[in-house]
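Aim 2, interim progress: modelling of the 6-O-phosphono-alpha-D-glucopyranose-bound target.
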Amino acid sequence: MCGIIGYVGKSNNVGQILLEGLKRLEYRGYDSAGLAIVQDGNLVTEKTAGKIVKLMENLKGYDLSGHLGIAHTRWATHGEPNRINAHPHYDSNMNIALVHNGIIENYLTIKKSLEAEGHKFKSQTDTEVLAHLIEKFYDNRNLEDAVQKALEMVEGTYGLLVISKVEPYKIVGARNGSPVVIGVGDDEYLIASDVAAILKHTRQVIYLEDQQMVVATPDHFNTMTIENEYVEHEIQKIDWDLEMIEKGGFEHFMLKEIFEQPETIRNAIRGRLITETGHARLGGLNLSDLELREVRRIVILGCGTSWHAALLGEYMIEEKARIPVEVEYASEFRYRNPIMEEGTLVFAISQSGETVDTLAALREAKSKGARCMGICNVVGSTIARESEGGVYIHAGPEIGVASTKAFTSQITVLSLLALVLGRMRNISSEEGQIIIKALEMIPDQVSKILETSDRIKEIAEQYHHHNNFLYLGRGANYPVALEGALKLKEISYVHAEGYPAAEMKHGPIALIDENMPVVIICPRDAAYQKILGNINEVKARKGKIMAITSEGNDELIKMADHVIFIPQTLDFLYPILAVLPLQLLAYYIAVMRGCHVDQPRNLAKSVTVE
Ligand code: G6P
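Predicted structure of the complex, ligand included:
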């Protein structure tokens, strides 16, 4: 996980450029940070435990001028998050500095043999071996050559950047399993984990593929494989604005992202609905109608919130297209020799497109001959590139660690997929048109729910001191219950459990007393009459009931302690609306408990370790 950024070019202000870029990568990890720049043939470097702002404070008063440098924000995997283990790491003579995102799996073996040759190590990290290996092969003239030789010996994942004070106008980058993007400016290059870090300087980018390297000097760059074969690069233009990744007046990124949902859902359906025939088009799937008709089984893989979206995909696709769907945690799927019979279509769903378990699961499915598609937000991400086709959710950059807008866009896209597959099977054009109409109303309905945020804030005021919450739902609203509970856990460190409402009586009911807030997702859908019984069971045990139900359903006002109304829609689309109050509830409770909403402890936005 970790974020890396490097600069080489005409500007003499490298320190400032790196620190600004690093701030935009902070979502990738934030337990320690550091930077190294080359100045008059010397390596100037500083690192610190803690967040980037601490690094900035430590650097006050430093001369940060120069044309070449690298920086890093860390999420620890090997060695605790302290100053010594923070990146950059150096060779024995402090000629070379290196930042790394990923894990060097065979580092202990390499470390032992380097120690036997006299190399002295300072940190407990896997990364430091890379700096010493490069030193071993370095002739002080050709850094890229030494990096190549070092990488030949390494097993594991890396997105890395290396500089040397002996070659003060050169930066070398390499990628295997961790993202690296090159920003191509005017006599300057920025190389980073994510475009967000370089967007201020250029929109022209190149995504490195696995096993590729880049060597850049202020006026030139080359891409090649780590075996030194020339690689043709394709420059892509980014159309995200910098403002899109700023907070836009909101107190936190998470709140901004919650409020962006009318727009992001609109983007997810834009250009994809065909009103006349009640159909949808998902061109990126790259599958003919015949191929789509031949799909016999679907497997959806994901982690965290994306896994919850996948569960909703199961409900939607099975109901509308009558195709059997299996949803698996990517981390389980990849190690259990899954059966991939003919006619199976696999979807890997991931906001970042970089989650290592999801990527490995995708590769596993591919290796078994399955056709694999991605449902990603980040364009050009590894999962998107390694899939045969797929659907972008177009939610824009999501910075808050807890996923919100990506979730609603994911389920919107899955509803489109259900429509596409359903129309080829048992959905009539009339039913297709009804679905389209309902989908088109969703963005405005989302806005309406967001207008009630003050009401949800009031409820949060009453309950933010509670340390246990139960979330219940039936049918498609069960995954919504899981997602609501996850949001609360992630950002407010409150214990919360999501449960199928009817299963409550097989265990969690024992927890219910007057101190237990129970959030019940119960729109007036096909499961409503059944869930009424479960609401009564909670009430009989004096649990505090917060009900999320459809507008006009006033009967719950008497039964529940609090009722939050959401607009009416089709049964299978209720989850898109029902999750919004839960996102807001989690957000306000976290703020009231004084938690760091955008960067919750122990979590990271993009999990690139298994
Ligand atoms: C991390 C994040 C979650 C996210 C999960 C999967 O755990 O904290 O918010 O849902 O990774 O991420 P992905 O990018 O694959 O959707």
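The longest strand covers residues 32-39. The mean pLDDT is 94.
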